[in-house]
Amino acid sequence: MKKFTCVQDIGDLKVAVEEALELKRDRYQFSELGRNKTLLMLFFNSSLRTRLSTQKAAMNLGMNVMVLDVNQGAWKLETERGVIMDGDKPEHLLEAIPVMGSYCDIIGIRSFAQFKDKKEDYEERILEQFIRYSGRPVFSMEAATRHPLQSFADLITIEEYKKVERPKVVLTWAPHPKALPQAVPNSFAEWMNATDYDFVITHPEGYELAEEFVGGAKVEYDQRKAFEGADFIYAKNWAAYRDPHYGEVLSKNRAWTVDDEKMALTNNAYFMHCLPVRRNMIVSDSVIESEQSLVIPEAANREISATVVLKRLLEGLK
Ligand code: AN0
Ligand code: CP
After folding, report:
1. Is the pLDDT of residue 126 over 90?
2. pLDDT digits (tens, 9 = 90+) for 246-281
3. How far is the CA of 199 from the centre of ligand 2 (A)?
4. How far is the CA of 184 from the centre of ligand 2 (A)?
5. Residue 91 C-alpha to ligand 1 middle, in angstroms?
6. Of all atoms in ligand 1, which is nearest to the CA of residue 238?
7. CB of 50 closer than 6 angstroms to any ligand 2 atom
8. CA 84 – ligand 1 centroid, Å
């Protein structure tokens, strides 16, 4: 594998999940593969899970790891070409990228949507510049439009817990006080659409995701109807995608919070969320603490998805 930014990069999902479950049985099977190979993880945004699980995955494979928080201690980076750099940013991405590439073998990037310019976000300007100019295999640790390491961990989790071959999986919008990217729901939809599950998306009007991600999924505006018979409820907030409201919070309606009453409509569904989650906005205390909540095993599977991805990127170096 030469890069990992979207579902297509991982190839056959059944094969990928099998590889993940096999690695989960013994995550140190390839502890020599990464010897003298260096991973650089670069964060433009905060992280708990991605930072720790990806570093752990690299250590499982015997890699050396460097972590750089761009906003803490590094020079502020200008990302636009043609800018007269007389402001507060002393260094340009176009120098920083090849310099960083010269110190490592693989690069992971976290760079969220900025909600300033939809085209810029959806063209993945930052991620694409790393792919073009670093000379290294690049993987996404959540970029502007996708979070594939999360979606892969979500898929592994569903495969581990599903009781029927084709479960009904429901992605539901839920309220949040601040504007959040569409990367997690886009990516989740992209991965679910690549399976044969019964996949439904529910959200208030105005929160439609980009068509390229919705694909063949069913969209149901009535959340309660969507929940009927569900085997998995995957909650997430996102800001509006459609113009002229791109990046805006259109609703904080807590009638969309996932609570016991709504979970009772499902087929005793499991509850999933990528975390971090705001309790009693996205989900009630009692649902997230219930036996049906998978948020902890789901987060634990981030180490597994990252181990598979780094293993394949290491194999691609040879
Ligand atoms: C981020 C998001 O919604 O994309 C990261 C989730 C993994 N969440 C927040 O910024 C709270
Ligand atoms: N789910 C996830 O990616 O969490 P972090 O933002 O903490 O990395």
Report:
1. yes
2. 999 999 999 999 999 999 999 999 999 999 999 999
3. 23
4. 10
5. 27
6. 3
7. yes
8. 32
Which atom of ligand 1 sits closest to the CA of residue 147?
Answer: 7
Q: Are residues 118 and 198 in the same domain?
A: no
The string of pLDDT tens digits covering residues 298-313 is 999 999 999 999 999 9
Task: Answer whether 258's CB lies under 8 Å from 282's CB.
Answer: yes
Rounded Cα gap, residues 55 and 118, in angstroms: 31
pLDDT tens digits along 14-39: 999 999 999 999 999 999 999 999 99
Measured distance CA(254)–CA(276) in Å, rounded: 18
Same domain for 187 and 269, yes or no, is yes
Based on the fold, state whether residues 11 and 129 are members of the same structural domain: yes
| Peptide bond before residue 177 is cis, with ω within 30 degrees of 0 | no
Ligand nearest to the CA of residue 152, numbered in listed order = 2
Could you tell me if 45 and 61 lie in one domain?
A: yes
Q: Domain containing 176: what range?
A: 151-298
Residues 250 and 266 in one domain: yes
Mode of pairing for the β-strands spanning 38-43 and 168-173: unpaired
Closest atom of ligand 1 to 180 CA is: 3
290 and 305 part of one domain: no
